[in-house]
Structure formats: structure tokens, C-alpha cells
Amino acid sequence: MFLRVQLLALALAVTLVQSSSAYYSGPFLFWGLDDLKDLQTPALTEVDDKMLRDLYSNAAAVVVFLRNGTTKLSADNFPTFKRIVEKYEFMYSPQQMLSSNPLDYNVNAEVINLVGSPSQQDVELSALFRDSTENYGERKVLGILANQWEEPHVLHKREAKGGEEFYSTSSTTPGSPTDEPEIADSIYNVPGKAILYMTGPPVLKMLNDSDEGETTHVLDKHTLATYDARERESKMIVTFKVDDSTKLTLKFRFDMDAGYWSMSKVDVFVMDTKSKDGAKSLDTTLELEGKAPYAPLGASYSCARQLVFRNGTTVLTLENIQVQPALDGKTKFDSAWDCVGFTTAPILSGIFVTSFMLIGLTIAIIAILDIKTPNRFESRTGKQLTFTVQE
């Protein structure tokens, strides 16, 4: 029996390693940190694991971009990204998997799946990396470009303008899809980090500046969710592909304070992936109307009523949610704090009416108990009883 348990554990470990390597498939391109200039490795040599861990730890944030297409990473297909790479120190590694996961060594690490055509991926990659440097500081963000699937790749070396070399990769297996698979449900799960569940998809309504009126997006398909954990505030980041040219991201913000967490704000980010500079058609923060969801750390929050987040004419509605951040490695919800609670309006009304009935019954019982019966009675042979009544 003990041997069988060991074999099962070994099989599970092999499966996890295989899935991890398939998720972060090489070759890899690292850029953004000045520390990279001291970590250049010989060609076709894997990066030392300790070097990787030091890179993750020294960075203020780590952004992993996953491609799942076969387009060459060349200056022609990714011109904007090429200019970003030339601006920073960068390092190329041909290895097929990362020996250390950046999410395990940096609390500000996140994974972004690139979708669409090469031009869309170029705009999205460049715009999101610029946003990260604005948030965490110039040359303090480590960018990692990888592939989502474990495929054999061929290294291409291109001569860039100014004498600098620009590496590109391509898969030897043609015909792989360029669009990221979308998940058609309303369960956003970052294993061991956070879970958000809804019975229906989020609905985002925006009032257009043109004469088209109001635009409504039913966000029923999403890509993989990520989680950005910090000491005071954490974010669950969920990306939706609205159409071929628009990408919409919701960032659910969790405030951590005094052993409790709350969710009162949602950031909405809409980007036109076909524009040359990754133009933002919407970048705003919505605030919840009414009392914010909250619960102790280690507990989830459940609410059957509709939650409405609003900022001017932009409105996001969530139906019947259960949510919990900071799972600390757990894979399911803990006990829930319900927004309804015990003292609802119908319950208070029932208690109020029942109290009046009890008061009336008590007065009636006291009045009955206060009645005194006569202690003398008339008889045919006795004297007639007389009672004197005084006004």
C-alpha cells in the first residue's frame, strides 16, 4: 500500500512538472533590469537557477508575456517591442522551461496571455510593459517573453539597426492557432490565490460620446485570470476579448486591513489592439454603490443581491457573487459571510409586530389576574347584601 502511494505521488509530481513546462515553454527573452548586463550567458546555455531566483527577487515586479502563435519574433512583426528591448538590457535563453516560477519569488508577478495577430500582440505587449514601468519605476520591472505551448523552436538571429542583434523564435510545428482559447463561464480562479464566482456574466454599460448611445458588453468569455498580491492591496485581473480589435480588462481591487479584506472598487481598462500606440479608449475606476463586500481574512463573502459599480456613465453589474482573495494555497472557498445577514427588513418587521402582540397579551393576562371574586353571597334565609358605590 505504501509503495502504491509513493508511485501515485511520483506520477502526480511528473504531471505537475510537465504541465509547468508546457505553460512556460521556451525559448525565453528577459529584459528591463540593469542586473541583466552582469548575467549574460554563453549562447545555447541555460540560465542558472540561482541567477533566475535573484532576478525575480530583485525586480519590483515581474511580467510574463505568453505567446501561443508561430509568428517569428522579428523586427518586422514586432517593431514597437523591438524599440523597447533596445532601450533596456536584455538576455536570451534557449532553454525549454524555467527551473523556477517567477510567481513563487515575487508578489508583484503576473502572467499576461497575448492574443490575436502579431501586430495586436506587439501593441499589447508594449503598452502593458510601459504601464508596469509607470507603476513600479523605470528599469525596475523584469519582462519575460515565453511561449504557452511546449514546442521545439528554432533560433533566428537578425541584425537590427545600430548594429544590435535582435533574436527571434519560431516553432517547427506549423499551423498552431494564434488566438488564445477563451473560457465561457463566470468563475475566475487563480489557484491558491483568489476565486470569484458569479451565477451570470458581468455586464458593463458605457455611454458613447458619439450618437450611437449606450454600449453594453456582456462579458461571458474570459482568458486566464491572474492575481497581483501586495501588503495593503491585491488585485484579481481578468481579461475579456470583446471583439477582434478591443481587449477589456477588469481589475477587482481588494483592500487588506486589520485582519479583514474588502472589495469596493473595480478598475476597467479597455484597449484598442489595432492602434499603433495601444490607445486606451477607457481607463477608469468604478466604485461600489452601497456597502462594500468584506470578510475576515480566511473567509469568503457571498451575496445574492446585485452589486453595482459606477463611475459617471460607466456601470458594471455583478449578479449573485461569492468571492475570496488571499487563499494562501487553498483551492476552494472557506466559510462565507453573507451580505443578507440575520436582521433583514422582513425579520425586523416580524419582530416588531410580535412584540406588540406579546405586550397586548401580557396586559390582558395581568387584567384577568387582577379580578377579585366576592367573599359573601345572598341566600333566601339570610339578609340581603347591599353595596355602597362612591362616585
Automatic annotation (TrEMBL):
Chain segments carrying region Disordered: 160-181
InterPro entries reported in the protein's UniProt record: Ac45_acc_su, VAS1/VOA1_TM, VAS1_LD
GO cellular component: a single term: proton-transporting V-type ATPase complex
Gene3D superfamilies listed in its UniProt record: 2.40.160.110
Ranges that cross the membrane: 347-369
Single GO biological process annotation from the record: regulation of cellular pH
Membrane topology term: Single-pass membrane protein
Domain V-type proton ATPase subunit S1/VOA1 transmembrane: 341-378
Location relative to the cell: Membrane
Recorded GO MF terms: ATPase activator activity
Record keywords: Membrane, Signal, Transmembrane, Transmembrane helix
Biased composition regions of type Low complexity, renumbered to the chain: 168-178
Range of residues in the leader sequence: 1-22
Superkingdom of origin organism: Eukaryota
Family: Belongs to the vacuolar ATPase subunit S1 family.
Name of this protein: Vacuolar H+ ATPase AC45 accessory subunit
Organism: Anopheles culicifacies
